[in-house]
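pasting for ref
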Amino acid sequence: MAKAKSFEQSINELEEIVSALENGETTLDESLKLFEQGVKLSKSCQTMLDKAQQKVTVLLKNEDGEITEEEFEGLND
């Protein structure tokens, strides 16, 4: 069984696919295969982002189970 790609690996591969498609040097068949692969990677990345958001939501719930909005201070350093 193949090891799952990290989010960063998937994004890098997706960027490579986009570049290959943009340069216009692939055949139609190759372009379709790359596009299909890109769609799969995009869905995989979205799934990873959704899971990360769910984890953050769980971490932000207070003791009453209510979600509290807190500013993430790591971005303002």
